[in-house]
Amino acid sequence: MRISHIPLRLASGAYILNSGLGKRNLDEESAAGLQQMASNAFPQVLDLDSARFGKLLSAAEITVGLTLLMPFIPSRLAGLVLGAFSGGMLTMYAKTPGLTEADGVRPTAQGTPLAKDVWMAGIAASLILDRKNRTKIKEVTKIKEVKVPAPVKAGAAAAAVKAAKKATLPAPVKAGAAAVTVKAAKKAKESRKSKDRRAGRKSK
């Protein structure tokens, strides 16, 4: 777990865990009210007994809270769990009559407590996406750190030398090089003749 994830996971985990612990001894009337609200988004919960629904809800929130607080659980997995939980809460908010304005998005005074759960969805997205970005950064770093073996470098250098030798020079450059070569040959020949003359005079 990265250090930057600690505040996100600690805040959301502690909040959800406390909420789940508070529902352990939920009375049947309160459980029935929560069940009725949840049925607007998930009608299947009506098949459960109110008391059992309250216990399951408490257990679910405790599980999500502990998942976020346990440091050995990867942040991406914790983000997926939190995303599923917050998605359910926001679905219930959107489908429950009286919680949103006529546009279906802005919360009413009654829906504000549930609308605030959007912060959990934001934290979940941060935990999931940050992991992906980190993986990409690692891949780019590994590519940059790849070292070219010595034989490969030597081969590349030899190929460069061969290419330079085979390179064709422009005609003026070739002519200039030839003229310089002829002049140098003439000077060398004259220098040899002068040396031979001096050597002949000394021998006499």
Tell me what the structure shows.
- With 204 residues, this protein is mainly alpha-helical.
- Helix content is 74%, strand content 0%.
- The longest helix has 33 residues.
Features:
single chain, 204 residues, mainly alpha, 8 helices, rod-shaped
Question: How are the SSEs ordered, and which strands pair?
Answer:
Layout: H1 6-22, H2 28-39, H3 50-69, H4 75-95, H5 112-115, H6 118-144, H7 150-166, H8 171-203
Helix pairs in contact: 1-3, 2-3, 3-4, 4-6
Helix/strand/pairing category = mainly alpha
- By DSSP (H or I, 4+ residues per run), the number of helices equals 8
Please state the CA-atom Rg, rounded to the nearest Å.
41 Å
> What ranges have pLDDT less than 50 throughout 5 or more consecutive residues?
none
Shape: rod-shaped
Helix content: over 70%
Question: What is the terminal separation in angstroms?
Answer: 100 Å
- Give the DSSP E fraction (strand runs of 2 or more residues): under 5%
Short characterization:
This protein has 204 residues and is mostly helical. It has helices spanning 6-22, 28-39, 50-69, 75-95, 112-115, 118-144, 150-166, 171-203. It is built from 8 helices and no strands.
